[in-house]
Design a protein that fits this description.
496 residues; alpha+beta; Rossmann fold; Jelly Rolls; 6-stranded antiparallel beta sheet; 12% helix; 28% strand; signal; Hydrolase; Class_I_gatase-like
Amino acid sequence: MLGASSSAPSRRRTASPRRRTAGVLTALGALVVAGGAAAQAATPATASAPPVAAAAAQHRVLFDNSKAETAGNADWIISTSQPDPLAQNPSPSAEKDWTGALSSWGVALQKSGDYALKTLPSGNTITYGTSSALDLKNFDTFVLPEPNVLLSAAEKTAVMQFVKNGGGLFLISDHTGSDRNNDGADAVKVINDLMSDNSVDSTDPFGFSVDALNIVTDNPRAIGDSADPVLNGSFGKVTGSIIRNGTTVTLKPADNPAAKGEVYRTGYSGTTGAFFATSTFGNGRVAFWGDSSPIDDGTGQSGNTLYDGWNDPAGTDAALALNATAWLSGAAGSTGGDPGGCTSAQLLANPGFESGSSGWTATSGIINTSSGEPARTGAYKAWLGGKGTAHTDTLSQQVTIPAGCAASLGFQLHIDTAETSSTAYDTLKVQVLNSGGSVLATLGTYSNANAASGYAQRTFDLGAYAGQTVTLRFTATEGSKLQTSFVIDDTALTVG
């Protein structure tokens, strides 16, 4: 993107020679509208074999605005009305009917009649497998338009599982150093971190990495492939794009042979200099674009210096964005990251401990019928701690959470203590571990300071781990003096 830097909010240069004329706007606008109205049923399931989708089905696209996409001079939103752009204008006919530098993209999709669009607003968290209406399982494609905040571990898991289970992921970068909110992470770092440090597959899952470059200006050209649906889709033929401060990716086909360069920087081909690239992962699809300038339509919220790359005659960026959205949204029969529903079930073995230690891995003797700490129901419970000496007790069970499911861990907890201080001397941690034994998340921590009479229900959302085999572990750690008992009963891991 033009003019972004790591020390100050991005400011783009005025590029009037490259700005569209009114005639170009009219002509290209007509092309986008006409192309958008063409049959989306031709969206391909692979790069060479288009399936036929049901005519009434709409492709569901979620645009992210939770990762500082409007920081500095960026305005990467389809509308200021979020999550639903239709609240701003239910029947948009022109880009300014919605406010945002991506409004042309959104309006073109909306006018086609084949897409249902939403935005994940600032302050929200990216999730997969939860009951939220904005959860990724409810969408076919997720667009990350120049994210400027690192995704959390749970968010990276959510995104990767979404793609693995059939979702489409549109990654849009900018040049290195374009840290618009000055938090130490630009889009190059955010995207590379997503691919290289996640709990699903960190071994170059998409077959490419983002180059730490700042290419000031270039007009990359598309490869010659008349059968490629991204370059020859229903929204028009793609001949090239534009770079106005951007970057490229290096392809690594040995890691993922599906990685493909679609549009290349001038003088480059093969595995280097790919400005627009596609790939697959699991049942899903991925597209990458190395600059946010091509998606910028030059209109947006006041106070931003924007540049109309969407209609720049040096590229066919509108067709590229729209064709790629159509291709991504057609993955896995347009079911997105939801593989087709989830059967309601309780997954934990021996959840109330009435079969003793069966199904659980536990410190010897903690699953018992002792009257010192009675069970909430039945005869058995898990009694961690209560010794008054320095030691640790653990209770764990491995479980596989089905892909596409909402998942919730619940249990009853009673805490009894001889401590009189509010200082946390003795603790109980509730954690999720991966198959290798590494801690993915600490769901909750309790201590002697939380002691109370009776049992209390505790519940945690595990939707981010759908499609994974994880271990749920309770760890009680006591100090060397007074006892604290952590008593657990009536556990449940429910999906549905």
